[in-house]
């Protein structure tokens, strides 16, 4: 992607309509959330109803699509994947940051960041783009891991489909901080506040078959995800 | 709900088709995940495409629907909510438990528990059921909180819609442990393993307007969510 960040929500279907004060029109914030998230929820229409499934993903801001590309992958035999090709899907990435405990149920809520991307799925058939996208998905989970692994085999590639969703139509909603209560509820003296939540990693666990030393890129990723660097009993 | 737990996936559309070894046909495990989750991703069809949004929810196993009821709520003015009434939606709750770092990109994955519920939405118009559902949603976030708050006002209730989704059609997929690699990749000696992930709470933060003592039900919830009970500087 070149040029300045363009505001989000360029179309009606990705305009945040409710609680517009929580809408963020800043592509940098969208990109930061998509970098931080680990699981996306992909929605696809099956017959007359939606199906929502958790998927791994990666983003390539220099990808071939307008405003960058979001990639997901799956088995060529997966029903959701076959239904997604050339269809319009919704990919939502949510990070939960806390519980907002207002003085009323009505004003109680959660702190979160949520990106909603709507776009028409392109089946990636260019070999180089597909290889790159698969590496990006591996490296999204643990940066540096793709370089530590062998290349995919011909058989693995034949069994795997990569889907591309343009990042053009996207919205971001962010809620943070404490409760926003009615003045009379604050005056009544009821306690209000919030409970921050975050995701943390525990110590990497080596597979017993090849215990060896945990590679530095794995240790680094665990530390970046909040692991304090200690092993049980070590 | 009365009687023994019935197996999950009674219909074609909630049968786990891929990686069937990960499908769990145990309603108790489904209920445990739905109790633990805090955010659901609700998918609804809008025109020709799905929209997937994060929502708070609660479950009532003694609810009026077959196999229990999942409740969500929202503003009566929300577009997704109006589209959901009498439509078939998909409600997915995913807890991410770890990164599975196989010796190949192909076998790399994540540890997670994911429940997929598909059902036709019933707008809750019974006053008692609606009151109870709203309490359940408040108590799902922090058990005991509903009793600590004033009752909703007539105006708040008029602005809020509660939707019920029967828990009848549901599937659960669970992935846990280390990687499942090709024998030749294990023999090659590449490191493989997994990084456990979990959600933790930090110390509850009181709103400055009513600092007071943090109520015991809030402290307890934070501890249950992994808070170690310590305050910064305390």
Automatic annotation (TrEMBL), chains A, B:
Record bears the keyword Cytoplasm: no
InterPro entries: Pyridox_Oxase-rel, Split_barrel_FMN-bd
Gene3D superfamilies in alphabetical order: Electron Transport, Fmn-binding Protein, Chain A (2.30.110.10)
Alphabetic keyword roster: Oxidoreductase
Coiled coil: none
Superkingdom per UniProt: Bacteria
Class in the EC hierarchy, top level: oxidoreductase
Chain segments carrying region Disordered: 1-20
EC number: 1.-.-.-
GO molecular function, one term: oxidoreductase activity
Protein name: Pyridoxamine 5'-phosphate oxidase family protein
Organism: Nocardioides taihuensis
């Amino acid at each position: 992607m070149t040029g300045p960040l363009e505001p989000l929500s360029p179309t009606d279907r990705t305009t945040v309509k409710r609680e517009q004060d929580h809408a963020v029109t800043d592509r940098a914030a969208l990109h930061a959330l998509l970098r931080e998230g680990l699981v996306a929820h992909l929605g696809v229409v099956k017959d007359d109803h939606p199906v929502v499934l958790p998927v791994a993903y990666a983003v390539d801001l220099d990808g071939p699509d307008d405003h960058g590309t979001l990639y997901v992958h799956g088995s060529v035999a997966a029903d959701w994947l076959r239904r997604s090709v050339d269809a319009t899907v919704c990919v939502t990435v949510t990070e939960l940051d806390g519980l907002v405990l207002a003085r009323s149920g009505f004003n109680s809520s959660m702190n979160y960041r949520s990106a909603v991307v709507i776009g028409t799925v392109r089946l990636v058939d260019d070999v180089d783009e597909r290889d790159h996208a698969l590496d990006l998905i591996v490296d999204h989970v643990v940066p540096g891991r793709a370089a530590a692994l062998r290349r995919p085999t011909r058989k693995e590639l034949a069994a795997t489909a990569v889907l591309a969703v343009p990042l053009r139509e996207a919205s971001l909603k962010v809620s943070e901080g404490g409760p926003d209560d009615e003045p009379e509820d604050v005056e009544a003296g009821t306690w209000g506040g919030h409970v921050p939540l975050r995701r943390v990693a525990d110590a990497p666990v080596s597979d017993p078959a090849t215990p060896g030393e945990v590679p530095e890129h794995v240790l680094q990723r665990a530390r970046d995800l909040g692991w304090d660097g200690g092993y049980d009993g070590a």
